[in-house]
Amino acid sequence: MNSSHEEDTERTNKLSPAHEPQEVAGSKKLTQDQQVGHYIDMWKQSVEVQMHFNDIEWRIRGLALTVATFALGAAGVAAKDGTRVGAVSLGSLVLAIGLLLWYAFYFVDRFWYHPLLKAAV
What we know:
Blueprint: H1 2-15, E1 22-24, E2 28-30, H2 32-81, E3 84-85, E4 88-89, H3 90-120
Antiparallel strand pairs: 1-2, 3-4
Helix pairs in contact: 2-3
């Protein structure tokens, strides 16, 4: 009976090498608990990176809405006054510049920060 228990223990020890210390960068060995701790730290860091890029995207979108609101308001005021720059209405010019800025924000969000966010996930 006792030898069967010893055989089971020996078989279990052979089947679960994860409990054995692992060699890392030289002669330092990590236990399974230390390895799990490192994996948890890596996971935490990846979540922090994801949160960082998500925060950047929301800031860009908020700034884009501010620019769009300003451009529409300024174009409305300029159109009401009837101010002209050469042959073009100042309201039309401000609206065109606002639209150009809106597309610039779209480009930065869609083709720059969004791929970075997806890569972090």
